[in-house]
Amino acid sequence: MKKDRRQFLKNTSLTALAAVTLPSLLRAESNLGSASQPPVNCNPTTQDYYGQGPFYSANAPSIVNNQLALGTEPGTRLIISGRVHNLDCTEYIAGAIIDIWHADDAGTYDNTGFNLRGKTTSNSQGFYLFESIYPGKYLNGSTYRPAHIHFKITPPGYPLLTTQLYFQGDSDTPADAAASISTGIYDATHRIVPVTTNSLGQKEATWDIVIDGTGNPVGIEEIRSTMGMIYKVSPSPFSDFIQINYGIFQRAKVSLQVFDIQGNLVADLQELNLEPEKYTAEWRPDSTVPSGHYFVALKINDIQVHYLKVIKEM
Ligand SMILES: [Fe+2]
Questions:
Q1: Where does a domain end: 191, 216, 241?
Q2: Is the pTM of this model over 0.90?
Q3: Residues 248, 200: one domain?
Q4: Mind listing the pLDDT tens digit for each residue in 35-61?
Q5: Domain residues for 298?
Q6: How far apart are the C-alpha atoms of 257 and 304, rounded to whole Å?
Q7: C-alpha to C-alpha distance for 220 and 215, rounded to whole angstroms
């Protein structure tokens, strides 16, 4: 069939890379119902019932190297990443200021300095990422608040949103006056995110922020689900190579791109016209590509329809 088709790669300013894409033997239709990454729903991010709470400090410093917590901070490492979208998710928003604060492993806030407090910004592709530690719990009256992270998010030219992020499976969520709200303007449903543990023992969570603002066009939900998606990028963390499994659901111009955390393009798979099928691509960055977080994006007919994050180790 199309066994010998290969995709050749354009070198970029940052790295020469080697990758090849071969059609999988499987047909696309066989697996569409069990994709490991279901399309993201577009749910506008709500404010939190508790607002900013009692422990906000203005003028937190910029986060350096995406490390909200120093490596010496006690606790389980936690990586939060996502993308900032406008309210109907048709655009991604670059340059949104994301002001973050949370309690330490023992459930205590630093109210004199700025430990576990900092600001980051969504990058030129709308992505953000920070690494910290899983927040400890503290008493609120007679019950513990579930583990949570506070945010103030300000898209360029738009008002700020003050909210909190929670984690699935927290036994203190049902009794919490804010996290348990599931309707109305304080609905926390889409701010309670799943947490996974990677092979380094770090917890990871993805949280896409949907907020009033303007940016650049991005594929909408319908486009993703009808055009194609990335099923899996593995292994993560990786050192030498990653394998990207993706599916195309109708004949289209397709390319894969890899961005670093600053939004710089580091790898670009040459655009090809592909038939609906499952495909596998491989990226072998050369040794000059530094360790860190990377986003793999699938572009179909010039629209970025899906992305997944991976970690590169040295
Ligand atoms: Fe809090």
A1: 216
A2: no
A3: no
A4: 333 334 688 999 999 999 999 999 999
A5: 9-37+220-312
A6: 9
A7: 14
Indicate if 92 and 200 belong to the same structural domain.
yes
Ligand 1 mean position, distance from CA 280 (Å): 43
Residues 109, 196 share a domain: yes
Distance 208 CA to ligand 1 centre (A): 20
| 63-99 confidence digits (pLDDT tens) | 998 999 999 999 999 999 888 999 988 888 999 999 9
Is residue 225 domain-shared with residue 210, that is, in the same domain?
A: no
Domain containing residue 242: CATH number: 2.60.40.1930
Q: Which residues surround ligand 1, an ion (CB under 5 A)?
A: 53
| Distance from Cα 205 to the centre of ligand 1, integer Å | 18
Q: Which of 2, 9, 12 is nearest to 288 (CA)?
A: 12
Residue 48 lies inside a defined structural domain of this protein: no
